[in-house]
Amino acid sequence: MTIRSRLRARAALLVLSTCAALPTLAADAVTDAMQEAYGPYRVALFKTNSNSQTEAQQAMTQAQQSWGKLAAQFGAKPPAPYDRDGAFGTSLAEVSRVYTKATEQVAANQLTAAHETLEAARDIMAQMRHRNQVIVYSDHMNAYHSEMEHVLIDGAKTLAQPNGMQQLTAQAGVLTYLSKKLSSEAPASYTGNAEFTGLVQAVDRSVADLQAALFAQNAVAVKEAMGKIKGPYSKLFLKFG
After folding, report:
1. pLDDT tens-digit profile of 205-222?
2. Same CATH topology for 3-20+136-240 and 29-131?
3. Domain boundaries of the chain, sorted by first residue
4. What is the CATH number of domain 29-131?
5. pLDDT tens-digit series, residues 220-241
6. So what's the architecture of 3-20+136-240 in CATH?
7. pLDDT averaged over the chain?
8. Is 122 within 8 Å of 151 (Cβ atoms)?
9. Which residue, 71, 111, 115, 136, has fewest beta-carbon neighbours within 10 Å?
């Protein structure tokens, strides 16, 4: 992908993230149920990223049960706004298949593979909401996660390229913008929570540390700061994502 096309993709992401987040309860039954099922999903995603097969299996069971409850309740006849979504049933089944595959991988103690498999469920759920013009706080978390992954996966390679420090500085600018959205678009039930405030501030600090290292053009400090970005986000995601 060229630099120009990547900038266009990021611009589109920024437009999406400027939309106002809905409160934790979205005032439609399907989205509310999806958000309720998202809690066990986050735990499963977290546990498959650890070293405990037993805990991962337990988390997967909870996630499957929560999603199965949603599918049984709304699969045949979803209420508005999902009642106009011709792909609603297909998406429900896709998430179920993701869970089934991840469960099989956990049973084989392939936790890393299961974690990667589960990532797809997040995208499917986000696409379901997007098709139906529904935005929740998780979408802002997902936007930040997407850009964070670019930095974590490609950051070292970018840094080694000509003008790599400048390119990575631009990426960090996008990450800074999206991290601020994690505060500004949070529902009132989150902003009044001291634990949430502490966790989201930790995310902001991790990005600020990366920017400071980039502005100083200190490659060693940049690499160190990149290694400390994921931890604060993961803690925020597990509890509030």
Report:
1. 999 999 999 999 999 999
2. yes
3. 3-20+136-240, 29-131
4. 1.20.120
5. 999 999 999 999 999 999 889 8
6. Up-down Bundle (1.20)
7. 88
8. no
9. 71
